[in-house]
Amino acid sequence: MKKTVFYIALCSALVQCTSLKLGKKVQPTVITEQVNFDTDDPAIWINPQDASKSLIIGTDKETDGGLFVFDLNGKIVNKVPGLKRPNNVDVEYGFNFQGKKIDIAVTTERQQNKIRIYEVPSMKEIGAISVFEGETDRDPMGISIYKNPQTEEIFAVVGRKFGPSGTYLWQYKLSESNGKVTGEVVRKFGNFSGKKEIESIAVDDELGFIYYSDEGFGVRKYYADPAKGNQELALFGQKDFKEDVEGISIYDTGNGKGYILISNQQANTFNVYRREGDNGNANQHSRIAEIPVSTKESDGSEVVNVNLGPQFPNGVFVAMTNGKVFHYYDWREFQKIIDEQSQSK
């Protein structure tokens, strides 16, 4: 009996120590209205006329799911219903379409083996591209958009539920033809451990890197420009996650610096790495902080550094959570924790 009591007390003390080390969970500033089925991944569109009127676009991942568009107060302001299991979504600016530049949102539609493209903010569909054609395993899941800063060419980097190591991800060059967006395969790449799957993908346009989560293994890094080849530049975070490596977001602090935030899904935290790398090595990434959040089992996330008004003057971090909602976090709360933990390393 005494041994049992001691063991319980010891476990309790260890939990308290862990809690003290990480600190209190960051609470969301805003919780969105509910979608119909299951949130999975958000994207953020910055309104160029008034950043306080920016939008969050999120997936509702089910057979009769769709895209939901929220304002910065978490209210649903638009919907794209009737999609067959939309998985991930991303936004890009300045796509050349019928003689003008527009902003686009692109989502994977898993059960149709397509990506769908929408003009933002109207959410009018302007294209649907069949992906992984000729493959036995298709089921598109992850997506991230890359815009080459020099050429302004725009590419969709698409992942899938299953796929062979070496060609797990496909990269499509997007263009307009006869009023529709089309895609040309320009690259097949991406190592895979074979442990779980690859879903979350993030692109750093400015620095020219692609990151993706090999869920049961670690985070992989490649060049975003297909002309630079398919060499894997880094594999990191292998001992930093409780189980699944999930959603990836990149926060820009200027001058090529910032943070890579990656969901430690089962721990309900986000691990933080330096965007610019460590010790002058752009491809060395060691964890500098771990942020405890109120999200549960978070798959997808996104972050921006833009002043969006009084609630989010240094930007917003958006994450999906169980409960059919998204959480919006004030970046300042994240920065405090990063500063405190990184200074102690």
From TrEMBL:
A single MF term (Gene Ontology): inositol hexakisphosphate 3-phosphatase activity
Keywords in alphabetical order: Hydrolase
Keyword hit for Hydrolase: yes
Domain of life: Bacteria
Enzyme Commission number(s): 3.1.3.8
BPP domain span: 16-338
Protein's name in the database: 3-phytase
Organism: Chryseobacterium taklimakanense
Lineage: Bacteria, Pseudomonadati, Bacteroidota, Flavobacteriia, Flavobacteriales
